[in-house]
Amino acid sequence: MMTTNRRYLKPIVKSVAPSKVNDIEPGHDYIFSILIYKPFALEHANRFGNEKMRFAYEIEAVGSNTLTEVVDSIKCFSDDCLFLEVPDTKVDLSSEMFNARQAYPSRTVFIEGVFYNDYRSPDSVDLSKEVTEWAKQKDIGSFVSQSMEDVHLRDLKPKLGYPYVYIHQGNCEHIISFSDARLITEPSYSRRYPRISSFCTKYNMQCFLCSNLPARWMVVKCDRFPHEKVFLCTVCCESYLFLDGKKVTEFQLYPYRNDD
């Protein structure tokens, strides 16, 4: 498996206002650099392919930050949009369509043999349960599950450069890696952290037909296209797949939100 390098990083760290009080003294805490990768699904059929894990952004956090604060700073488009089939492009994409994190609040981070679960919501479930049971049956090892709410980064002992996993929305998996840990040498302000310090260049998915407008809809299993799924803008979707407001053929339609 290959990983993309970091030459496309864009620093976005903002300076702190002079009025903020520096409450972290030099030599009393660490800054961790955590690399977050885009969701990646390794399928058995293409395990020998050239698919790369693609870097998304870098988060800086201090030892006093909890794991919940770190995962709250992880941004993923699957937290914003519920993947629900709609009848046409006229559907009201209200806020209910864009609060997937509220609908499915369960999250877990796997670091050094421990699954840290987010139980802050009463609707949260243990995403690690099936994995731990499977590992026990296969005699792979005995993994531990616990709440992440009271776990601070300073309590962890991660290996630098080693891949760990962040799971949310059921099966959306991100590889994460602690790339650096350094002692704070200058007075700093704890409320600055965690923060996104840099990110990779992003490109919007363009419409499959016109290639001019960003895609807003995903069309699946349509016999008018050579691919199983294509991404279309609203104009092309309405003009090519609908006539007088009705579908011209059978297909599945889903709202699509670019990862921006």
From TrEMBL:
It is found in: Nucleus. This is snRNA-activating protein complex subunit 3. GO terms for cellular component: nucleus; snRNA-activating protein complex. Keywords: DNA-binding, Nucleus, Transcription, Transcription regulation. Its main location: nucleus. GO terms for molecular function: bent DNA binding; core promoter sequence-specific DNA binding; RNA polymerase II cis-regulatory region sequence-specific DNA binding; RNA polymerase III type 3 promoter sequence-specific DNA binding. Signal peptide: none annotated. One of its GO terms (biological process) is snRNA transcription by RNA polymerase III. Belongs to the SNAPC3/SRD2 family. InterPro entries: snRNA-activating_su3. It comes from Acanthoscelides obtectus (Bean weevil).
